[in-house]
Write a sequence for this structure.
């Protein structure tokens, strides 16, 4: 048995709270071609692979009590990076406080990317943060689109990781055309030659499984690449595992096809469920497969934090608005403009709520620039990052059609009004600093002044082709 | 130091005028201001001009002041465009006072002009937002109405202010504006109209928000050395207060008042040697109804948190103890951004010279004008008194 330097130290998962059922989709499209999918996750208007990846990674770090500063390698896997060229790990690293000298890599172009990054991290002797995040899209009438879901998983891998990977095996063989996306296209394509696709899938998994040292009969959960809810079960033969083991680690039936995050996310749920002997089988068209066998002792379950539950069910009309199919983009009149260099200078404030204590009077300032808001001295600030929880101090609901031009398309995708307000974030000395923020995940009527909220990072808007990300908040359930 | 006097003031009609330009509206306002000077005034007498203009729609962003001054026949007059958002021409008045007091000018045009209705509905929202705090407040998706709605939410949470009290402000403004022939929305509205109107930014309805307005206004400000040449019934500007504050609401010490307005008011009262109880009527900046309620508190017309109750009481109506916005205010008269501060002086002039017609306050001696830029980043407060020249 191969000894790998790292094991799983912490697990995080995130799936957008928006869902749509197969019935609703069948009503809307006039048919529904995604086998075994009863409902799927839908990214909100301001979510993408970066923001979902951030959500999952933040949870993994929090669950493991891991400081982002201790990460040696940051790996981002996605078939849907929001830009085709530009290294997004710089954004993710800043959001998660990963040191700038950390090794970074983006793995893409295959739904196996998540497992490829995972295998790399297991083989690494440093502390690796693997983020797999995806939100594929297809043309409306295709099975690819009907199944297309969303989600992200993140793993902290290090030598002290509680969950060991006992073996990794890979395979590759040219099978072009089973699933691909042409350069410049936002939607997936497939030749749709079913026997050919099934052969590719079975052959690549079989070849890798033959090289993998494991006992198929002992596998309790098999997380297998799922382009829909039925595909993983076709891996039972090639992998030699029981269908029940596949069922124990399948979530595509509930969230749809999560692309490169499909297997890492299914594996995360199986780990979170406490399963001890696991198989993870990533497959991507081209074609490649990456398999990993995991085993842990009874007492060594890695900490995990998953936010994967569906909370809001969309109508078909709401769904196609979210997709941008019936919105017409930004108005022509121009919008409020914050230059990219200006935005870049404030990135630690927008990504990590970096505030500052006045070196003269100790008042907490946000953003920590210019004269102190309390003593008015022009000072240097002692930087401090505020916790991502706060209290609403003022709010309003911007009615439909009333959004600033640069927010008009997001408002159209929301299909109505949105809430924006001022939130006080508590500082380390019991003091607080306030920031204006947009509120997500609320029905607008629910929130009042004094309510607690938690911060997250979402897309603000895209201008000149560059997406500005920053903090937004969502309500926290009151825990009496 | 020489005192400054208001010797005349006039405005164009406020409304939507496709056949007018920001220059032609200014020319009309200047003509009306000149006509209001009892002894008349020649263009040659004008030493300086300050023109408030945000330049909504773009048009002449650079050099708009020469453009309007030349169009109005004030050839060669030194002029400056002033921009402090909705307080632009409140600052025109402030600059005019400073020019007179410094001794550099004897007669100064303090005006403003704005055309807002000739741009597309896709373009206007951009321009309406240019005075918000861009890097944070605006990036939270906040609009101008949204900021005042946030203020309303905080005022309601802290003091129990009710939305119906905002609607009382709107009803009063429209009642006054219906008596002002220059008003854009010169019709009365009911409490139900205001309460049940479309929501713009919760909790504010359409009737809690000022309209989009074309218009211009001019006040003529003279030194004590020359004022008697133009009028036997001069109005002395006894108090001139101004203050600035963070552009974004989140940058302020309070979300339930405008600290710059309180400071500006304190400075104006101190200079004039009077207090809130000495004011006979006021024109306040009611871009949104909550702004008038805050103005009552910031100007000391009532205690903090009592603004809503004061609005509801009727004491600020024409027949009340302290009439506020007899012109109809921004809500009914209209709000051509760069012209609003100068237009407030027009109403003060009319009231103090007994030319306000049906909305005349009985024999007022002292009036106040309160002009707010954005959501409180820049504020002017001026106090005007009937006086003998050289008193």
């Amino acid at each position: 048995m191969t000894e790998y330097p790292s094991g799983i130290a912490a697990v995080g998962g995130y799936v957008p709270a928006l869902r749509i059922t197969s019935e609703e989709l069948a009503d809307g499209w006039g048919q529904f071609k995604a086998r075994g999918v009863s409902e799927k996750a839908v990214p909100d208007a301001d979510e993408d692979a970066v923001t979902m990846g951030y959500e999952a990674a933040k949870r993994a770090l929090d669950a493991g009590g891991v400081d982002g500063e201790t990460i040696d390698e940051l790996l981002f896997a996605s078939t849907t990076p929001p830009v085709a060229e530009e290294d997004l790990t710089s954004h993710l690293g800043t959001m998660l406080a990963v040191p700038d000298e950390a090794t970074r890599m983006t793995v893409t172009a295959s739904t196996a990317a998540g497992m490829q990054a995972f295998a790399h991290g297991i083989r690494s002797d440093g502390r690796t943060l693997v983020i797999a995040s995806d939100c594929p899209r297809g043309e409306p009438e295709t099975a690819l689109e009907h199944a297309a879901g969303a989600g992200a998983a993140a793993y902290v891998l290090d030598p002290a990781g509680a969950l060991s990977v006992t073996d990794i095996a890979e395979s590759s063989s040219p099978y072009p055309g089973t699933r691909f996306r042409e350069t410049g296209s936002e939607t997936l394509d497939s030749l749709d030659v079913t026997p050919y696709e099934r052969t590719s899938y079975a052959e690549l998994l079989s070849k890798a499984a033959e090289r993998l040292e494991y006992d198929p009969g002992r596998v309790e959960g098999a997380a297998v690449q799922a382009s829909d809810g039925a595909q993983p079960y076709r891996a039972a033969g090639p992998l030699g595992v029981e269908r029940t083991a596949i069922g124990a680690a399948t979530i595509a039936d509930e969230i749809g096809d999560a692309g490169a995050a499909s297997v890492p996310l299914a594996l995360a749920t199986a780990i979170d469920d406490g399963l001890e002997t696991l198989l993870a089988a990533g497959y991507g068209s081209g074609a490649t497969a990456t398999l990993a066998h995991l085993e842990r002792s009874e007492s060594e379950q890695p900490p995990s934090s998953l936010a994967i539950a569906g909370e809001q069910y969309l109508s078909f009309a709401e769904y196609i608005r979210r997709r941008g199919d019936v919105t017409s983009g930004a108005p022509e009149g121009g919008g409020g403009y914050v230059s990219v260099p200006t935005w870049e200078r404030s990135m630690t404030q927008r990504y990590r709520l970096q505030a500052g204590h006045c070196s003269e009077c100790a008042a907490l300032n946000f953003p920590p620039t210019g004269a102190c808001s309390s003593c008015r001295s022009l000072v240097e600030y002692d930087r401090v990052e505020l916790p991502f929880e706060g209290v609403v101090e003022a709010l309003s609901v911007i009615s439909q059609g009333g959004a600033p031009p640069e927010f008009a398309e997001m408002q159209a995708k929301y299909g109505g009004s949105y809430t924006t307000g001022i939130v006080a974030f508590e500082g380390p000395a019991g003091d607080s600093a306030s920031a204006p923020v947009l509120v997500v995940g609320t029905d607008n009527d629910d929130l009042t002044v004094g309510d607690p909220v938690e911060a997250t990072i979402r897309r603000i808007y895209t201008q000149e082709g560059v997406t500005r990300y920053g903090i937004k908040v969502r309500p926290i359930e009151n825990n009496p | 130091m020489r005192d400054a006097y208001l010797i005349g003031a006039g405005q164009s009609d406020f409304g939507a005028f496709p056949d007018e330009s920001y220059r032609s509206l200014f020319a009309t306002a200047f003509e009306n201001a000149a006509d209001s000077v009892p002894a008349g005034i020649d263009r040659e007498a004008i030493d300086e001009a300050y023109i408030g203009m945000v330049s909504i729609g773009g048009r002449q962003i650079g050099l708009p002041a020469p453009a309007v001054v030349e169009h109005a026949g004030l050839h060669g007059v030194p002029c400056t465009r002033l921009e402090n958002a909705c307080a632009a021409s409140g600052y025109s008045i402030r600059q005019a006072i400073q020019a007179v007091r410094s001794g550099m000018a004897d007669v100064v045009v303090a005006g403003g002009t704005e055309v807002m209705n000739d741009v597309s509905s896709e373009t206007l929202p951009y321009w309406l937002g240019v005075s918000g705090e861009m890097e944070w407040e605006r990036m939270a998706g906040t609009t101008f109405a949204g900021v005042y709605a946030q203020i309303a939410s905080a005022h309601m949470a802290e003091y129990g202010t009710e939305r119906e009290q905002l609607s009382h402000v709107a009803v009063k403004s429209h009642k006054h504006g219906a008596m002002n022939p220059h008003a854009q929305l010169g019709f009365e509205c009911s409490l139900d109209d205001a309460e049940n109107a479309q929501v713009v930014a919760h909790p504010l309805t359409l009737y809690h928000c000022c309209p989009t307005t074309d218009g211009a206004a001019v006040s003529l400000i003279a030194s004590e050395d020359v004022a008697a040449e133009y009028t036997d019934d001069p109005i002395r500007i006894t108090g001139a207060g101004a203050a600035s504050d963070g552009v974004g609401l989140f940058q302020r010490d309070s979300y339930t008042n405008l600290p710059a307005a309180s400071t500006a008011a304190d400075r104006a009262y101190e200079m004039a040697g009077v207090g809130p109880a000495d004011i006979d009527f006021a024109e306040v900046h009611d871009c949104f109804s909550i702004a008038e309620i805050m103005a009552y508190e910031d100007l000391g017309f009532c205690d903090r948190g009592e603004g809503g109750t004061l609005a509801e009481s009727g004491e600020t109506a024409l027949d009340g103890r302290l009439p506020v916005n007899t012109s109809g205010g921004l809500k009914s008269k209209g709000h051509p951004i760069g012209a609003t501060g100068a237009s407030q002086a027009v109403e003060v002039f009319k009231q103090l010279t007994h030319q306000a017609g049906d909305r005349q306050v009985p024999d007022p001696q002292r009036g106040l004008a309160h002009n707010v830029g954005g959501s409180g980043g820049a504020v002017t407060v001026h106090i005007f008194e009937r006086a003998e020249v050289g008193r």
User: Anything to note?
Assistant: The first helix of chain B runs from residue 22 to 36. Chain B touches chain A through 46 residues (CB under 8 Å). The mean pLDDT of chain B is 96.
